[in-house]
Amino acid sequence: MTGKSCVKSIEGRISSLKGIVSIKVSLEQGNAIVKYVPSVLSLPQVCCQVEDMGFEASIAEGKADSWPLRSLPALEAVVKLRVEGMTCQSCVSSIEGKIGKLQGVVRVRVSLSNQEAVITYQPYLIQPQDLRDHVNDMGFEAVIKNKVVPVSLGQIDIGRLQSAYSKTPSTLNQNVNNSQTLEQQGSHVVTLQLSVDGMHCKSCVRNIEENISKLPGVQNIQVSLENRTAQVQYHPSYVSPAALQKAIEALPPGNFKVSLPDGAEGSGTDNRSSTHHSPVPAQRTQVQDACCTVVLVIAGMTCASCVQSIEGLISQREGVQQISVSLADGTGTILYDPSVINPEELRAAVAEMGFEVSIASDDPGNHVGEHSVANSTAQTTTGMPVSVQVVARHGGGPPKIHSSGLSAKSPQASTTVTPKKCFLQITGMTCASCVSNIERNLQKKAGILSVLVALMAGKAEVKYNPEVIQPLEIAQLIQDLGFGAAVMEDYTGSDGDIELIITGMTCASCVHNIESKLMRTNGITHASVALATSKAHVKFDPEIIGPRDIVRIIEEIGFHASMAQRNPSAHHLDHKMEIKQWKKSFLCSLVFGIPVMGLMIYMLIPSNEPHESMALDHNIIPGLSILNLVFFILCTFVQFLGGWYFYVQAYKSLRHRAANMDVLIVLATSIAYAYSLVILVVAIVEKAERSPVTFFDTPPMLFVFIALGRWLEHVAKSKTSEALAKLMSLQATEATVVTLGEDNSIIREEQVPMELVQRGDVIKVVPGGKFPVDGKVLEGNTMADESLITGEAMPVTKKPGSTVIAGSINAHGSVLVKATHVGNDTTLAQIVKLVEEAQMSKAPIQQLADQFSGYFVPFIIIISTLTLVVWIIIGFIDFGVVQKYFPIPNKHIAQAEVIIRFAFQTSITVLCIACPCSLGLATPTAVMVGTGVAARNGILIKGGKPLEMAHKIKTVMFDKTGTITHGVPKVMRVLLLVDVATLPLRKVLAVVGTAEASSEHPLGVAVTKYCKEELGTEALGYCMDFQAVPGCGIGCKVSSVEGILAHSEHLSERATHLNGVGSVPMEIDITPQTFSVLIGNREWMRRNGLAISSEVSDAMTDHEMKGHTAILVAIDGVLCGMIAIADAVKQEAALAVHTLKSMGVDVALITGDNRKTARAIATQVGINKVFAEVLPSHKVAKVQELQKEGKKVAMVGDGINDSPALAQADVGIAIGTGTDVAIEAADVVLIRNDLLDVVAAIHLSKRTVWRIRLNLVLALIYNLVGIPIAAGVFMPFGIVLQPWMGSAAMAASSVSVVLSSLQLKCYKKPDLERYEAQAQGRMKPLTASQVSVHIGMDDRRRDSPRATPWDQVSYISQVSLSSLKSDKLSRHSTSADDSGDKWSLLLNDRDEEQFI
């Protein structure tokens, strides 16, 4: 402490703690005097709180005032816990560390080999269940091996014990007085001698004496170790010999065997029956006759503490012999002495505590009588059965019997509460251990009947008792665990809904039979059968009944039922309709458009004599030439057949008050067509000498180009739905459902289609098979390939209790799985849904041409209208101008008509010349050339949108496995730990390679591959007695490796050197050796009795910090090597990341792998921001989050787990060697598996977009020049635009745009040398502190905290460090960072699903 502020902050913080009475801190003396309540808080806890503030605190020796408890003999008990899931010494030390700190724990010893913990504790401060829960909360599975609390202690006795030891000596004296009064009341004392086997020493004697003497009714006990006997003096009215036998046998360590002397069991029962029948000592009967029972109905109790407080307070009242309160039934049963207290006083006493109380029975005597009928076989006088009840209560009879006797009496208890179901949305779950954490903790709470949590959907389904707990309280419980939770009010849950095809129905009565039978079945909520279609639609509750049961019910009536096949191809995302429409549109336009283009070219050819008319210009009838007739016929077909879909799109666009490209095209073509038709009809009517120049050639040309562009675009888009088809194909089609017998033996097996598998089914999965549903393993051990979800190629250990994922592959063990999620609730179905939603929600980018036409359409219409109005005004003011430039074919036409006709012609010419032909071509041509160039360079771009979008990318997110890294493990380093002379490296490699060749584990495959490469051979030695222990390692015997070594030339010299023989190795007489080999992690070596030196352990930890997996090799019982294996980073990854950063793009790493590996990889490639331990849904959410900030995001991935994010991102980029699903979901595919192609794709996009813009500018310039000429602005200067000139200019602009696009063909992808030259001297690997790691969707950083000057001065204990980290960390594992083993990259030693 340095100043007053330190004093204030310590006093403020500590005084706020529960159990602190007062605190006084002295700065001068450097101490604090604390008054506290030890039953609430312990001194070490106070010290921890002070240390968390950054100070050092310790208890001053001998200064702690003795609390009355200290004077009592220490009441200690021992409990043994079976602890599953410990893999290494650090698990042991973390359990011992955490449990040792708990208040009430005296000693704790954890054994890794026996997988158990032996804990000595003080039962008045902590209970075995609490100890078990604490161990469970650390991520292990703990089970109490023996019950320590003697079976005969009832609620009231525990209450008395607690009040005896946790209050003050005065209460103790009261209890002594109580027992004296009992003795005075005079139940006689019986002495019983028991023979006790299994005692070893004095501590066993003490254990029995201390625990049994505390039982109610036991007056004295003496245990003899020599004679193996126990002499007990007890009151038979309170305890029976059988109960004493049970109590001693239940004591830890659980191996005492007690036998009663001959006739003692009888004597025990005789004792009891004598209490019923024989007139035992008079005083005793008096006591019983004097006692009565009353049942109180208590409303308002919410938890166990209410029960305890009522029992504690009422039991202390004079005249109360015994009280038992039931929370579930809402009743309290009190045995009392009516001469001292009456029922009304008891009711008032409970009511004073704030509960609503009523007396269930007014006639206590009568009640006891009834009670005796319920509870005792011997029915005698009313008073008698009271003792039976006491015996039942104290003699170990379960209290449930007691309350069942009441239920008939208490009106409230008789109504059974129907459980309710609620659904909660949970955020913040990152892995399977989060799921088990939530399920385990909720199931401990009173009132919660069942919990089912879906990781991917982020939903929990909870069945609860509405009288005990409410959904909002459940949500609060989940929030207390560190997750976000909200009750889904309107969510009905996944009610089953199936469609069946029923054959064999003949008439309406069949329909009625089926419907009525189904509706009578429990669990079916709706059933409707249609005779005409032979279909039935059934809704049901999947918890009560399943599809298979429904089919069976229908078949029992005599019909045949099967699931209606849903058509997988009928999907809203496959664009089949659009492709068909645009293809039809294009082909139709093409058929009629080619002749039109031919005619246009023919027209453009100038004739030799200017005034000589062409053959096609000859009139068929006055005013109608052959050319115009052909044009009209062809154009009409194109306009209404080829252009129909454009009209539909334009109508939709106008309905939304937007003007896109379609509106402009429809406007231009319709006006050109209508105008041409009108002037042609007018010419025919007027019998004009020459046929007028029409614009019939515009629509076909325009429609051909644009329909082609649209068709190709939709073909590219349709590829996205193939991703879903591929995903669906991962689902198993059938499941082997088994029926289990009582001893869990398989009675029968049947093959069931996937649709008929229901929740709760037990499914057998054979090695190599797919897991058909999400579920929990019931029996068997195996490894599962879960790359589907995590993207990590490493198999995950599965053992009973582990969760499995539908679609993942079972590696090498046969297992039984209980289905928890089926159908649309499986993880795979959730991924399909994510991909669908991402593809649906992806905002289509508004193409540049569309944006352009948004402004261009209104502009042209305004100009056109202006032209019309202006020329009408000019015409009426000065008709001469019109006459000069508009020769009238017929003299009889009125002047006004001429003016209007001329004004119309100019305004239509404006519209036609502004025809968006070049605008329409600007984008598709550039995109076609761009995608072609990209494909030539190994980049497949699906359509124009990704190509247009890529240049706007501001953030690129990389997946790790298979994207930044190769996705397969490689040996990084082999360290020899013995002298080369005794065991050469090549011999070690030959032995290890042979041993690992029998392993299916990817690590084993990597080691074997490396050994073969190093030895330069494909042949290996002979391996026998092979055994693999999932999560640990392998063991075997290896022989015949000499042959491999003899092949090598290198070895010849070494062999001669070692043997001292100068002959060729082949001639050496080598006796074949057999080596005993062990390969695995630290735990595997320890299990096999091999010590690991600190140097080796440090070397392993070094590699593990880099994200490598380090395994040890022992040959013939000697630790001789360490092999470091890792998923190696691609060579070009760092350069690609650097180049992207230099282009101003943010780069992030997003992976399902653990934080340590993610950080190690990020530092190597230079990525500053890392998201680790993320689910597929988190990846999508992360992309959406960035998109909401207005950033354009590219996602680069290769796995099924990346596919939803690839679909959601503005540009999804898949690695060509990745999964089919990812490739289908992405917009861009990198065929060459080269990350520099990500840079190239963005580079090419920039070029293409620049070219598109240039095309638009060319088109625009042509329009800007052409429109004023068409509008007649330059008429005074003699520049007049004839309509055919307009057509020619239009063709020229289109050609110029196409030529401009073709120049993209000259694009060359920047090569590696160029990138390296740019990055020369600038690329530096990052340090760990420069990388920020975020876990799951949690945006708080999980960095290694930087050292402040204060940290350097003071030693930070593990406790204060863990408090610096986020609270949520604890839900993954308390000691997440303790040991490298646990978080190693590829072989998590703990059950790996904890850290998916």
Automatic annotation (TrEMBL):
<keyword id="KW-0187">Copper transport</keyword>
<feature type="region of interest" description="Disordered">
    <location>
        <begin position="258"/>
        <end position="283"/>
    </location>
</feature>
<dbReference type="InterPro" id="IPR044492">
    <property type="entry name" value="P_typ_ATPase_HD_dom"/>
</dbReference>
<dbReference type="InterPro" id="IPR036163">
    <property type="entry name" value="HMA_dom_sf"/>
</dbReference>
<feature type="domain" description="HMA">
    <location>
        <begin position="420"/>
        <end position="486"/>
    </location>
</feature>
<keyword id="KW-0813">Transport</keyword>
<keyword id="KW-0333">Golgi apparatus</keyword>
<feature type="transmembrane region" description="Helical">
    <location>
        <begin position="625"/>
        <end position="647"/>
    </location>
</feature>
<dbReference type="InterPro" id="IPR006121">
    <property type="entry name" value="HMA_dom"/>
</dbReference>
<feature type="domain" description="HMA">
    <location>
        <begin position="77"/>
        <end position="143"/>
    </location>
</feature>
<dbReference type="GO" id="GO:0005770">
    <property type="term" value="C:late endosome"/>
</dbReference>
<dbReference type="InterPro" id="IPR036412">
    <property type="entry name" value="HAD-like_sf"/>
</dbReference>
<keyword id="KW-0460">Magnesium</keyword>
<feature type="domain" description="HMA">
    <location>
        <begin position="292"/>
        <end position="358"/>
    </location>
</feature>
<feature type="transmembrane region" description="Helical">
    <location>
        <begin position="855"/>
        <end position="877"/>
    </location>
</feature>
<keyword id="KW-0067">ATP-binding</keyword>
<feature type="domain" description="HMA">
    <location>
        <begin position="1"/>
        <end position="58"/>
    </location>
</feature>
<dbReference type="InterPro" id="IPR023298">
    <property type="entry name" value="ATPase_P-typ_TM_dom_sf"/>
</dbReference>
<dbReference type="InterPro" id="IPR006122">
    <property type="entry name" value="HMA_Cu_ion-bd"/>
</dbReference>
<feature type="domain" description="HMA">
    <location>
        <begin position="190"/>
        <end position="256"/>
    </location>
</feature>
<dbReference type="Pfam" id="PF00403">
    <property type="entry name" value="HMA"/>
</dbReference>
<keyword id="KW-0406">Ion transport</keyword>
<feature type="transmembrane region" description="Helical">
    <location>
        <begin position="1256"/>
        <end position="1278"/>
    </location>
</feature>
<dbReference type="InterPro" id="IPR008250">
    <property type="entry name" value="ATPase_P-typ_transduc_dom_A_sf"/>
</dbReference>
<keyword id="KW-0967">Endosome</keyword>
<keyword id="KW-0812">Transmembrane</keyword>
<keyword id="KW-0479">Metal-binding</keyword>
<feature type="transmembrane region" description="Helical">
    <location>
        <begin position="691"/>
        <end position="712"/>
    </location>
</feature>
<dbReference type="GO" id="GO:0016020">
    <property type="term" value="C:membrane"/>
</dbReference>
<keyword id="KW-0677">Repeat</keyword>
<dbReference type="InterPro" id="IPR018303">
    <property type="entry name" value="ATPase_P-typ_P_site"/>
</dbReference>
<dbReference type="GO" id="GO:0005524">
    <property type="term" value="F:ATP binding"/>
</dbReference>
<keyword id="KW-0186">Copper</keyword>
<keyword id="KW-1278">Translocase</keyword>
<dbReference type="InterPro" id="IPR023214">
    <property type="entry name" value="HAD_sf"/>
</dbReference>
<dbReference type="Pfam" id="PF00702">
    <property type="entry name" value="Hydrolase"/>
</dbReference>
<dbReference type="Pfam" id="PF00122">
    <property type="entry name" value="E1-E2_ATPase"/>
</dbReference>
<dbReference type="GO" id="GO:0005507">
    <property type="term" value="F:copper ion binding"/>
</dbReference>
<keyword id="KW-0547">Nucleotide-binding</keyword>
<dbReference type="InterPro" id="IPR059000">
    <property type="entry name" value="ATPase_P-type_domA"/>
</dbReference>
<feature type="transmembrane region" description="Helical">
    <location>
        <begin position="1284"/>
        <end position="1304"/>
    </location>
</feature>
<keyword id="KW-1133">Transmembrane helix</keyword>
